[in-house]
Amino acid sequence: MERGNYTLLTEFILTGIPYPLKLRTFLFVFFLLIYILTQLGNLLILLTVWADPQLHARPMYIFLGILSIIDMGISSIIVPRLMMTFTLGIKPIPFGGCVAQLYFYHFLGSTQCFLYTLMAYDRYLAICRPLHYPVLMTTKLSFLLVAGAWVAGSFHGALQAILTFRLPYCGSNQVDYFFCDIPAVLRLACADTTINELVTFVDIGVVVASCFSLILLSYVQIIQAILRIRTADGRRRAFSTCGAHITVVTVYYVPCAFIYLQPETNSPLGGAAALFPTAITPFLNPLIYTLRNQEVKLALKRLVCSSQKSSGTAPSP
């Protein structure tokens, strides 16, 4: 790559999200609480799945534990840097740090996308083919599928990071966003970005569209199977095992489609939408799965009772 007569950037400044200055302290505390609760909530889910023998051998909850790890990772990559934009002074992010942030965000984000698809397939087998489920979805197979999701996500993240940072960056170093993401960083490139924008649109579009189509197909089959259940209690239990997954998939996919699959704009709505997959969804996932999944709630109760017995404290009536 020829450098020409310009100085390549060695750091970037993230401008953050637009906000009234009088809300600086409130927003810092708000996102600090979001971050802490996200880590604690996902850690609680992870420990519950790991500690409960009725959960940690079942593929659906293996997937849920991995989802908690991903949520903790995405939150740690994005939210602390976002909080720094609410403090006084300019705190640049090094060029290498920007590369790492973009890579790990797309690595974990695409892995999450694949994982949601695996969770939908698992629910399809459990509800539509219950007699064959223990044979078709074994613990070994679930770990192999998770490993495949990690590898595919790593490849996707590496592709996006290499394509984005192969370009020269010079002139302004202000990224008009709250983290180093592809559309915002590409605006600073001192070269033609047409190929990058096309590859990004196609690559992310294929991943999102294919995963969403497989999830949709799975749930069409699931809903048809549930409607054939004769008892209302049976239908309710079947829906309860899928309701949490449907909710988190909706919260995840709608903002992602808005951010990456729309024509190039610099609308503040893009930044607001990006808060969902980066900060809000990782915070909401533990709440959704504990409030809407009966088995997780029962496992949490068993975990609390077990800890109370081991500490010699009688459970409250």
UniProtKB/TrEMBL annotation:
Coiled coil: none
Regions that span the bilayer: 26-49, 61-83, 103-121, 141-163, 204-227, 239-261, 273-291
Primary localization: membrane
InterPro entries: GPCR_Rhodpsn (IPR000276), GPCR_Rhodpsn_7TM (IPR017452), Olfact_rcpt (IPR000725)
Alphabetized UniProt keyword annotations: Cell membrane, G-protein coupled receptor, Membrane, Olfaction, Receptor, Sensory transduction, Transducer, Transmembrane, Transmembrane helix
GO molecular function: G protein-coupled receptor activity; olfactory receptor activity
Protein location: Cell membrane
UniProt topology in membrane: Multi-pass membrane protein
Name of a matching Pfam family: 7tm_4
Domain annotation G-protein coupled receptors family 1 profile: ranges: 41-289
Superkingdom assignment: Eukaryota
GO cellular component: plasma membrane
Name used for this protein in its record: Olfactory receptor 10G3 isoform X1
Organism annotation: Dipodomys ordii (Ord's kangaroo rat)
Gene assigned in the entry: LOC105995818
